[in-house]
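Residues determine shape. Next comes a sample protein:
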Amino acid sequence: MSNLQSLPMDYGGLVKASKRLDPAATSHKIKIALLSDAAAQQFGPLLRTLFHRNGFEALLYEAPFDGIELETINADSGLYHFQPDLIFILNSVQALRASFSKRAGDAVAFAEERARGIAKIWDAIQHHSSATVVQSNFVMPYERYFGNFDQKVAGSFSSVVASLNAAIAEKARSRSGILLNDVDAVASWLGRRQWFDDRLWDLAKAFCALESLPALAKNMVDIALATRGRVVKCVVLDLDNTLWGGVIGDDGVDGIVLNAHGDGEAFYRLQIYLKELLQRGILLAVCSKNEMSNALLPFEKHPDMVLKRSDITVFLANWNDKAENIQKARDILNIGLDSMVFLDDNPFERSLVRGVLPEVIVPELPEDPADYVRAISELNLFETTAFSKEDVNRAELYRAEAERRDAQAAFANADEFLRSLEMRMVVARFDSFHLPRIAQLIQRSNQFNLTTHRYSEADCEALMKNPDVLPLYAKLSDRLGDHGLIGVIVLAPENEDLTIRDWLMSCRVLARGVEQTLMNLVVEKARERNLRRVRGEYIRTAKNQMVEDFFGRFGFTQTGGDKDHAYWTLNVSEYQCKETFISPAAELVAAE
């Protein structure tokens, strides 16, 4: 999800801006390869500008025109020498039309063969590279040879394109490391009349009209940023004139405007939209200038409220300013401000939050509530690269955490509380079932992350199959509920050392003894192999200062580097196991 509010998005403006980019103003690099059966050079300036606006210097590789197959099957191609992080494959319906017109056999067989060919290209890439593949679908053609009857004819060109798009999606679902670039959705939103420029295709084989390129480039940047952990985790909601029409404190439950049909349908539609976001793992919070008793009334008593009190993870209704309440919600949830979206109908409140908390995403909502969902959807704020069972249960995980905070108040000290939780941990080698959540945690964890290496699901699968490394995940549960998969450690035996290549954890489980239990396990693994040392690495980022002295707290000695990139070493013989209130290490599962 790219932060492009209030910035020029026209083709000419982006090209002009690309000539003034300062790489020193970025904090990250990302390597992008573009493969297309159309000309791809127009994408470069746009992508560089949009990535730069999001703090990334984009290094681009543009494969030769229509060189998708040659680049991917040749192990010595420029593509693989470039070693990209992501490979975007852009297939044009214009090129497909030309191939379709020359088909030798059945049109349905043509679509099936083309789908198999696309999958073979994925195979070739994944054989030679660990890059994430982002495959485009095809924009639906404008011609309908049979008019409205076209979709009833399996062999019509539009039917073939629709079938091919469905086949691409189906094949991608069953494979890790393959993401989809829904170009047809972008073109449909803009309108195919605006999308296509046949003259420009004839002259330069341009993928689409130049005026449409910025929307597609933004879509590509959104996908890339999601692979780098730029995702929305929480939507913070105002109430009056945002979730319903009117002011609950003045109008009462019967007086607010909210219904499934009529003048309150706009607010009803927004709540349906938010409920679906909740179902896919986006947390909902409320920050309202209201008395708590009034704010709760619609959730408890209004018959047309789609959202219920139990759907709201953090509910703050008081007379503090919105920025202060959002900061409080962030502290409760322990997530980054840049992973929060704030929705409020009031321009003053939106301006205040933008000024005080510039990291928070604050969309400019239209005056007419009927356009709220359209405006939010158009921004594509909720891009993701994975969806797991834990996403569905995310709100429940945070509700259970709130119960733990309430329970803690009844104990005299932290040790008594932790002992009462009856915590249990399972640690195991990466397995296929958990790969989506493992990759998701790796891509999204920023604060408790020692190196912030970003691994795709395909990378995690490669680690799982690599006998020379020990990639472990950790799951935690207690008497109040299941925390789910909360940690990842990647270990590598090297000569007399056990190297910690990666260590990251969800901040939801800090101060539970998780890191102590896991370090006990790491040292035990070194002892089992008769290794003398455990080595670790810390790479500073803008968000992970909380773990800069992580190794020092366990008795490691810094043996190289500096404060921004430090190397640490521990003599195994000197390590004393840490006491925790989690099930003993002997009960942990560490399948090898």
User: Anything to note?
Assistant: The mean pLDDT is 91. The chain has three domains: 11-227, 234-378, 411-587. Residues 11-227 form a domain with the Rossmann fold fold (CATH 3.40.50.1110).
